[in-house]
Design goal:
Blueprint (H helix, E strand, L loop, with lengths): L16 E4 L2 E4 L11 H15 L1 H7 L6 H7 L16 E5 L6 H9 L3 E8 L2 H13 L6 E5 L2 H7 L5 E6 L6 H10 E11 L2 H4 L3 H8 L9 H18 L3 E11 L2 E10 L1 H7 L3 E7 L5 E5 L2 E4 L2 E3 L17 E8 L6 H9 L8 H13 L7 E2 H7 L7 H10 L4 E4 L2 E7 L3 H14 L12 H7 L17 H4 L33 H4 L3 H16 L1
Parallel strand pairs: 3-4, 3-6, 4-5, 6-7
Antiparallel strand pairs: 1-2, 7-9, 8-9, 10-11, 10-14, 12-13, 15-17, 16-17
Helix pairs in contact: 1-2, 1-4, 6-7, 7-10, 12-13
Length: about 525
């Protein structure tokens, strides 16, 4: 054992070539690359492949094309003349490209691409993109570009892109205003957010970044998705545009959403009905919603009556917390997900995991948020029942139930809170808790002491076990590597004046000694 040596993990600069998909990336300098996000890139390749070939004609079918869109279809990035054959296919902007890996993969793996602009604000990163583009022999499709991402998108508000990919480090909101303007009518917007701590409960920070108040909840990952979609829809609505989510995923340490953007002032009004506030009890964590606007008839919108709920929770008499606004509409287009599954390529490195996650999404109910089984039972201080038994109880009561792709122990159902707590009470009768240890005013005591309102059966239901579980698919998160995560922010970032950004670590070097020297000099001057 003493003679054995630990195997040293090779550093990035010791690995000159990284292979992912059909692309090869050369690393001659420290440009940001995160191997954990291979699933993100594989999924983006699959979505764009469907969008560019099978999905593109359907996506644009029936859309009235504006003058600016017609100009877009008959021009290129540089407004040069091209033949009819070259105008076929979609144009893609990767606004924050770093190494160019994603753009190169799009060029080599997505059929039906006419042109890709791989942009980055860092001159060093653009040089890396240019070198990698030549190495992969995709110069005819990928154009390296050196510009501020927001400025580039504003410059293409007329000559728009069919697909815009935003994958920033942290919050994407500062890029959304330009993105919703430079994507074509019926085009697709691909957005990543890695600041999960903000979206999952840091309410004041979430408000100024996304325009919504977050809340600490066991369904925080879906709340994060709905806050992000609300933010995108808000930016789009300012320009008479609205969004249709095709696929929304919370996975690993980030969110990834794929939305189509259309132009219609009437649909923008209708999108307001898909926004709403979230109410969560501070004691039993029961959830309620209220739409900001209700639609009574075509072109007839009314404000809902307030308040939507009582100040004190009717189950445990605790106060309510309010959050939002969040997106209450669908997270996914289930027909699109079905077609994505049927066209999934086995050549993708993470295709098995993609198959599992997409299958769970296809099974997922179109209902906002979910409960966690272990948390429900923790509130009443009771043993956790088998998941299949709890799902069976909901099905036996005549309601629907599914998993959420964001949580392994999730219960997504259209059953009201009364039925959920009735199931908890029924289970507790068979596995009683020590009531004498429960405080009289505690949520557990008030919930368990209430009478049943529904007849509950815990007999196993034949539909309780979903297909994804029966097939033993890779459905939920498994840590890909040790110490995995969003990685370290790229060191090649520069400001708008092209000055290299000095890291906080460098700025703080010898900070104390500098202060001591300054104090000593002042004393010498006084003497």
């Amino acid at each position: 054992m003493a003679d054995e040596q630990c195997i040293k993990k090779p550093k990035l600069d010791e690995t000159p070539v990284i292979k992912e998909g059909k692309a090869e990336i050369l690393f001659k300098e420290k440009v940001f690359y995160n191997p954990v996000q291979e699933f993100n890139r594989d999924l983006s390749v699959a979505v764009l492949s469907l969008f560019a070939t099978n999905g593109w004609n359907k996506a644009t079918d029936g859309i009235k094309t504006s003058k600016s869109e017609k100009a877009d279809k008959n021009s290129t990035l540089h407004n040069t003349e091209e033949n009819t054959e070259n105008l076929k296919g979609i144009t893609i902007l990767e606004a924050l490209s770093a190494t160019g890996l994603r753009s190169i993969r799009y060029a080599k793996e997505v059929e039906g691409v006419r042109q890709i602009v791989a942009n980055d604000i860092s001159a060093q990163a653009v040089e890396s993109i240019r070198r990698n583009v030549v190495h992969n022999k995709v110069e005819n499709l990928v154009t390296p570009y050196h510009e501020d991402a927001t400025l580039l998108m504003y410059q293409h508000r007329r000559n728009r892109f069919d697909a815009v990919d935003l994958d920033p480090y942290g919050c994407p909101s500062k890029y959304l205003d330009g993105a919703v303007q430079c994507v074509s009518n019926g085009g697709i917007l691909l957005v990543t957010a890695t600041d999960m701590a903000v979206l999952a409960g840091v309410s004041e920070t979430c408000y100024y970044k996304y325009g919504a108040i977050s809340i600490k909840s066991k369904s925080c990952h879906e709340i994060a998705l709905r806050i992000l979609l609300q933010c995108i829809a808000s930016y789009a609505g300012r320009y008479g545009r609205y969004i249709v989510p095709l696929l929304s995923i919370s996975v690993d340490f980030y969110l990834r959403v794929f939305v189509q953007v259309f132009t219609s002032h009437e649909k923008c009004k209708e999108n307001a009905t898909k926004m709403g506030m979230l109410y969560q009890c501070n004691g039993c964590e029961s959830i309620h919603f209220q739409s900001l606007v209700t639609k009574k008839a075509p072109k007839n919108y009314k404000l809902p009556n307030a308040p939507a709920i009582e100040q004190l929770c009717k189950y445990c008499q605790h106060r309510q917390h309010m959050a939002g606004p969040i997106w209450l509409g669908p997270l996914h287009d289930y027909e699109f997900v079905s077609r994505l599954l049927s066209n999934l390529s086995t050549e993708l490195g993470t295709w098995k995991r993609m198959e599992g996650v997409l299958t769970v999404i296809h099974e997922e109910l179109d209902i906002p948020l979910y409960y966690k089984l272990d948390r429900l039972m923790s509130i009443v201080r009771c043993h956790v029942p088998p998941m299949m038994m709890f799902r069976s109880a909901l099905l036996n009561a005549g309601y629907k139930v599914s998993y959420s792709h964001a949580c392994k122990l999730s219960i997504k159902t259209n059953a009201p809170n009364d039925v959920i707590w009735d199931i908890v009470r029924t289970w507790e009768k068979k596995h009683p808790v020590k009531r004498e240890k429960l405080a009289e005013d505690s949520p557990a005591a008030r919930i368990l002491n209430a009478s049943l309102t529904t007849d509950i059966s815990l007999v196993l239901h034949p539909l309780a076990n979903p297909v994804s579980r029966q097939k033993r698919l890779s459905r939920f998160q498994q840590n890909p590597t040790v110490n995995w995560g969003p990685g370290v922010r790229s060191r090649t970032r520069v400001d708008l004046e092209n000055k290299t950004e000095v890291s906080k670590k460098v700025r703080n070097q010898n900070k104390n000694s500098k202060k001591k020297s300054a104090v000593a000099e002042q004393q010498m001057e006084i003497e």
